[in-house]
Amino acid sequence: MAERYRFLGKIEPLPALKPRMSKEVIELYKPDLETLKTIEASFTQVLEARKSIRQYGKTPITAQQLGEFIYRCARVKHLIQTERTEIAHRPYPSGGALYELELYPIVNSCEGIPFGLYHYHPLAHQLCRIADRTETVEALLNNAQQSAGQQDMPQVLIVIAARFQRLAWKYESMAYALMLKHVGILYQTMYLVATLMELAPCGLGGGNSDLFNRAAGCDYYAETSVGEFALGSKPKA
After folding, report:
1. Which of 29, 91, 194, 232 could form a disulfide with 56 if both were Cys (CB 3.0 to 4.6 A apart)?
2. Is 0.70 surpassed by the pTM of this model?
3. Considering the chain, what is the average pLDDT of its residues?
């Protein structure tokens, strides 16, 4: 009953990839996953060590670390054109392989990447610059700091937004619930990757979709924020 394709033949489905939001792009670092497979900690070690860390090291996260983190969490591995719509393969699972979630990193303190609000292009593995240091972007960082109840401002705040039509075009009654499940799945993926990389992760339960839409210039009724994830360098013990 949930997969009714109620808009089939009425509304064109959204493409799997959102178009680049800016011509000002930053190429991100891509790790050698085959080499990492041979040297990294076991899954059990990572799972047992996973926890939220709300304080950061004196040296901020680097561009290489951020690039590797996002690559391992959210890149597009493959695009596939089916009879009805375009789907993708990414590191975390998604209902119908539709992947409605979009990442908008706010870089506050990162060696090699200037301050700003960016949109992540998951196929090209690039950051597309959207905004500089505006009052709205600063307010998003302040809200995240208060939501986490932490002293340190997030070095990087990853705002997770959803393009609602990607799910609603196919699914009916379960679309919203499925979207929130996807946020939780992505949170866990981010936690595990950050733990493995010895970074400081923290999934946030707050957020401000009005602020996000003003900062990013998105249509509130087509795409808005549904989650936030704070990331930074891990403090020394």
Report:
1. 232
2. yes
3. 94
